[in-house]
Amino acid sequence: MKKKKIQEPYVPDTLKLLKGTKDTLWDASLSDQAIEESFFEDLNNEEEDYKNIVISQSMFEGCSFHKCGFENAEFSNVLFSRCDFSGCNLNNIYMSKVRFANCKGLGTLFTNGVFKDVRMESSNFAMANFDYSKFEYVAFSECNLSDSNLAYSRFNKNIKNSPSSIGSEMN
Description:
The protein is mainly β. It has a single domain, classed as Pectate Lyase C-like (3 Solenoid). It has 1 helix and 12 strands. It has one helix spanning 22-31; strands at 35-36, 39-41, 44-46, 54-61, 64-66, 74-81, 94-101, 114-121, 134-141, 144-145, 154-156, 169-170. The strands form 3 sheets. Strands 1, 2, 4, 6, 7, 8, 9 and 11 form an 8-stranded parallel β-sheet that branches. It has a two-stranded parallel ribbon with strand order 3-5. It starts with 21 loop residues before the first helix and ends with a strand.
């Protein structure tokens, strides 16, 4: 039986030409429009409400979302690099083919989240709350999950005994 690998996010090569702004996120969250094929760099957001936002085939680099609300949001084919989600509310989030690299999310809420084909690499999600979440083909690599809560979460078809799961710290 062939082992399943986590599917990598698909992000078009043309992203560098489409530079998103803080207003792009805000306008999309107000209008129920999806953000697609956008590149966001060095955004500094604090206590913004992006409830129900849908983001696909996009990349975020060096962005801060300190204490922002992303309840009921949907991310598919999204890359986050060097982003800070500390204190954010991502309850009821749906993530498919998402990668977090060198990100931070201290005390972030992910309650009732759905994570499919997600990688969290070299990231710090200490004290995060993943209660009642569902994980399917998810890998934590070199991640700090100390004091995080995973009560009543379900882990289905996760990658086991792979280098991508080595080095995670979970208490």
